[in-house]
Amino acid sequence: MNAVTGTIQPTQLKHPISDTMYGVFFEDINFAADGGLYAELIRNRSFEFPDALHGWEPDGDFEVRKGEANDVPFPKNPHYVRLTGTRHRDQWTALDNTGFRGLAFERGKRYNASFYARTANNTARQNIVVSLVDESGTVVAKQNVNVNSPAWKEYKATLTPSASADRGKFRLLYDGHSGSVDVEQISLFPADTFNGHANGLRKDLAQTIADLKPGIFRFPGGCIVEGTTLEQRYNWKDSVGPVGNRPLNGNRWNNTFVDHLTPDYFQSYGLGFYEFFVFCEEIGAEPLPVVNVGLACQYQNDERDLSAQVALDKLEPYIQDALDLIEFANGGTDTAWGKLRAEMGHTAPFNMKYIGIGNEQWGKLYTDRLPLFLEKIRAKYPEIQVVGSSGPSPDGNHFTYLWPKMKEFKVDLVDEHYYKDPNWFLNNVNRYDNYDRSGPKVFAGEYASHDNPTNSLYAALSEAAFMTGLEKNADVVRMTSYAPLLANYRAWQWAHDLIWFNNKQVVRTPSYYVQYLYSNNKGTHTLDIASLANKPQGVYLSAVADKTDNSVIVKAINVGTMPVSVKLKIQDAPANAAVKASGIFGNRRDKNTETAPDTIKLETSGLTLTDGNLDVSLKPGSFTVYRVSLK
Ligand code: AHR
To answer: What are phi and psi of 167, to 5 degrees?
Structure first.
């Protein structure tokens, strides 16, 4: 078969590519936050789960108590446990925590334990022993802590285990026999969190996200923004301020899927809006927070159910939440919410530019509410760009109703969602070619190719092919993000997901490498490939220029089963210019798993142009990025 031929003229820049083009979408689904990115190892640390001892294995004389607001360290989390030593001197009272589907720790690494405590029942100082216990029951790290006050105080200890465990335990043991001690907010973090923050993020997961160099970071969801009920919606104000006083919330994903029930799925809000903003800043992503528009999840509630919607004349607090959020992110320290941000450790504004109003909303319920938010946001913060919804699908009634409405409302970006099979992605590469260039821009905010098996190479290749169309239409598509981002192998509800993990391991999917390759080879301007000839079905090509390092970047996908030769003339390039090739390839059904995490892995190699031509053979089942240096 003849080689695919074409010509790229590097100086004929077409559209600038937005810095926000490739981003990530974080939602607390699949144990993405607690038991995932949030590095806290203790489950139910403040005894607020409906079963107050969920996650704990108590032994001895203990009592769960609920304190009055003025008698507990954290009034919004009023439960604590009283440990009493009334038994024989060789009988102990202890609380073991089993973590999130196991509590993993590594030999020689440091772990920071902390808890609030007070002596109770007029007893004098009390000794507590905190320890790490491995699977065999052996204590592999321990430290004594003296509780020396009848007033609540925070106590800390550092534990360095002498052995590792996958399913270990944290133990808090009352080392006394005649007194009582109250304990609350029992916490354990690895000392080595991402960028070393206390209350920080799990380093390996955070780094895997950072490696994507996301231009945009959308959070905190997703359907959890809406909640199954309005009471359960994600209320960002509950997620800021002192960590111990952030009230526990249920998770909208706990009982959604019959085959993946996780009724023990709660949000501690330890990873809250402040932590999200800091993370965005540290990884160079623009924050895109989403707030509730006055609707509980529309999938889970009938539109006639008035309890799932806020009446229009009662919407003011929700609108105020959006305005206050902007103040929290950007306001001066002389504003109420800007002051809180400063007290939490960030005096400078976060310089937030975008806000999403509503998640995946649809219908008149949405279009009645959105303008009320827009009016107030536009009046007070005209510089903030607002993202509106086009519903849950890339076409159909909701979509065709909402897009004209979004234009009428003059939102800045419209969020589109599509979870489809690989054929849909391959057949929709040209989706944006004829979009209206004068209206709002597109945020492809949630998409993933769903294949069998889950997260196959073929699914990823279909996404890579589709993304050539996103890239080509960079004048209208300004932001994109795969969804969902994270999934815990032991506690997931939704597949496919970009990154899978267990308590010790991170597994990058083929789709992860696709996102990585696009984002790390984003370029600054699109380029046409002229005179394209002999291109068989199943081959997808695109080109961009990168003015930051004077290179041309060609992306090439071959979803077919035969190798394909490609010969592209790069006009005026040095005859044997250096080329870096990076990519993935394999069999269509290949996927990465816990036991075979590198079945599909990133391969890189160096080559040169041949007489100014990129002359290469595309392997079957491959996605390759060729970065041609014009220097
Ligand atoms: O990404 C999973 C879910 O898909 C999101 O929460 C929601 O917006 C969509 O339906």
So the answer is: -125, 60
